[in-house]
Write a structure and sequence with these properties.
Layout (H helix, E strand, L loop, with lengths): L14 H16 L13 H13 L4 H6 E3 L8 H13 L1 H28 L8 H4 L4 H5 L2 H19 L4 H18 L1 H22 L5 H14 L2 H8 L20 H7 L5 H19 L3 E2 L2 H16 L14 H12 L1 E2 L4 H40 L7 E6 L7 H4 L7 H6 L2 E2 L11 E3 L17 H6 L8 H4 L2 E5 L13 E6 L2 E5 L1
Parallel strand pairs: 4-5, 4-7
Antiparallel strand pairs: 1-6, 2-3, 7-9, 8-9
Helix pairs in contact: 1-5, 1-17, 2-4, 2-5, 4-5, 5-8, 5-16, 8-9, 8-10, 9-10, 9-11, 10-11, 10-15, 10-16, 13-16, 14-17, 15-16
Amino acid sequence: MDTAPATRPLGEAAARPIAIALFVGLALVLAPFTLVVAPPLQDMPNHLARIAILAAIGAVPDLARFYAIEWVAIPNLALDLVAPPLARIVGVDLAGTLFVVAALVLVATGPIAIQRARHGTVGLAPLLGLVIAHNEILAIGLVNYQFGVGLALFGVAAWLALDRRPFLRAAIGFAFAVATYFCHVMAAGLFGLAIAAIELGRLVERRDGRALAPFLGRLWPAVAAFAALPLLFALSPSAGLGREAGVMWTVLGKEIGPVIALRAYEGPAEWVVWAGLAGLAGLALARRAIRIDPTTTILLGLAVVAYMAAPRAIFDGWLVDQRLPHGMLVLLLGFARVEVPGARPARLVLAAILALVAVRAADVAMNWRAIDQTTRAFRAAIEPLPRGTTIGVLLADAPKRSILADATLHLAGHAVVTRSALVSSLFAERGKQVVHVRPPWTTRVHPGDIWPPTLAEFEAGAYPFTRDWPASMGAIVVLHETGAPRAPLPGWTLAGAGAGFAIWRR
């Protein structure tokens, strides 16, 4: 017979089931990585290309001919700092994979660390983060932001654990604030949002007007923790980006943020996961199992205000606001408590959570396997190209749009990794990356963060940077081909083709 109190959370007394569920859940989340050559995320080929350049530019003349490195304090450096040294040991593909794995593990376990630091035990709510560890933000390839969210979560846990040690709290908070900033400015914002909620929550929980004085005294560690960020931002070239267009804010699309926080790919599996999450949430609400304290309420309120206030684009970067809900959600999972009456029902909930994790992981594995087949076919098709070749990138005239199709949008970046090639669509914009394209190639690559031109736009000369491609490019890659490949230029021959791509040579 279970003698536990009726409202006891599944905590220290049931630490073993929680630990087992966490281990099994993480194994399921990470299983898709074993099936692919590298995580097939939309931006990942460009990330791998940057790793290859940073790791080997001094030893590979072709890379040095096309690219240059300028280290500046931009809020987008996590991958650039961590992965290239690792790539010299284990290779580019595995270095990129390990970075993404680390980001996923940090985000999945961060809510558990927060709940342990805040409540002393771990309940069921943080384990829901395993269900949404794979999401569309990851599928897009925003891995620096994801890594920064993971660091922010552990920074919040450290802040809570060091409540009575203000000097150490300020020092550790400073380290996490700077680290999250260099991952992504919005990750640093998420960390700051949580710290503000914690300190405001303490003031509200005391319900004593005289608590204002000690509250103000407690502010100095928070001020010290974030003191360096304004200076870092002022010194960053990112601050000068987008000044002509300014900050773009729109309410249109705000509803998409929560969707892409919960969705990974399209298909029947998504309906199963969403229905399961809705069922668990409905059951928790019906049984009044969710416990939300004033700090969590304040955090939720601040998150909603911050999300509505956040711009869609800033510093010439997009999806600024739409990437926030996932970080906010996993942060809230660390603060919220779900109390299940009795060990047996709690274990049933754990089993349901793991079932949803398994469904999501299986769906991701299936989609990753399909994308990986295209990746492997593309790498095989470019193998005959000479090292140091130059590649222009185009899209088919009517590119198919979907999460799965967009996963191959930057497929040509693999040519940098395997052929030391110049690729016209590589991320190499000043103020956003530390890798730049050298002259005279700067006038022959995509200016800024734009989609590759379509084949029809190329033929019409719509973009000046493509006009000398017939003479300067050794190959042209056309992506998202769904019909018979069409030559981009008269006399060019088909050098290779696969699902969604065609390679043409002079």
